Amino acid sequence: MTETYTIYLILFYTNQSTGVKVGALGNVYLSAGYYVYVGSARRAIGARLKRHRRIVKTKRWHLDYVRPALKWRGSIKCVTHDGECALADQVRHQLNGVTVKKRLGSSDCKCETHFLKLTGQLIPERLKYFADAWNRGEFTKS
């Protein structure tokens, strides 16, 4: 039986630069701008997104440490296709995502990161356009 899960994108913004200590990963520097986190949930996607949206909570994931420094701008559920890692890779390539710190948000896989800084103009619009194309299957290997 194939296990099903949901992958998602969360867009964040900060208008100021700050440093954050992220558990054993160490210090992370966040400059002003937009950031995207690529995540997945095996069940209860609504509860997962609600948890990520909260600022005050027990720190469980890397995102929990950086979340207080960031303003929530929205989330997009995505079709699973090739998985969370493939989605993070396509965000990097299609939207020129920049690694903030290696292993940030990707401690349970071999990816460099699942938390990227996005640069350029019209980022919320570009992210939505990208997610729509992803959900149509335009970036899948199959």
Describe this structure in words.
By secondary structure, this protein is α+β, with helices and mostly antiparallel strands. The protein has one domain (6-135). The chain contains 4 helices and 7 strands; from the N terminus they run ββββααβαββα. The protein has helices spanning 45-53, 62-66, 84-94, 123-135; strands at residues 6-14, 18-22, 26-30, 33-41, 71-78, 98-99, 115-118. The strands form 2 sheets. Strands 5-1-4-7-6 form a 5-stranded antiparallel beta sheet. Strands 2-3 form a two-stranded antiparallel ribbon. The longest helix has 13 residues, at 123-135. The two termini are 20 Å apart. The mean pLDDT is 91.
Sheet with the most strands, sense and barrel status:
5 strands, antiparallel
Contiguous low-pLDDT stretches (5 residues minimum) are none
User: Please, how many domains?
Assistant: 1
Annotation, overall tally of beta strands: 7
Number of helices: 4
Helix content: 25-40%
Give the DSSP E fraction (strand runs of 2 or more residues): 25-35%
Radius of gyration: 14 Å
Q: What order do the SSEs take from the amino end to the carboxyl end, as H and E?
A: EEEEHHEHEEH
Strand order of the largest sheet: 5-1-4-7-6
Structural category: alpha+beta
Distance between the termini: 20 Å
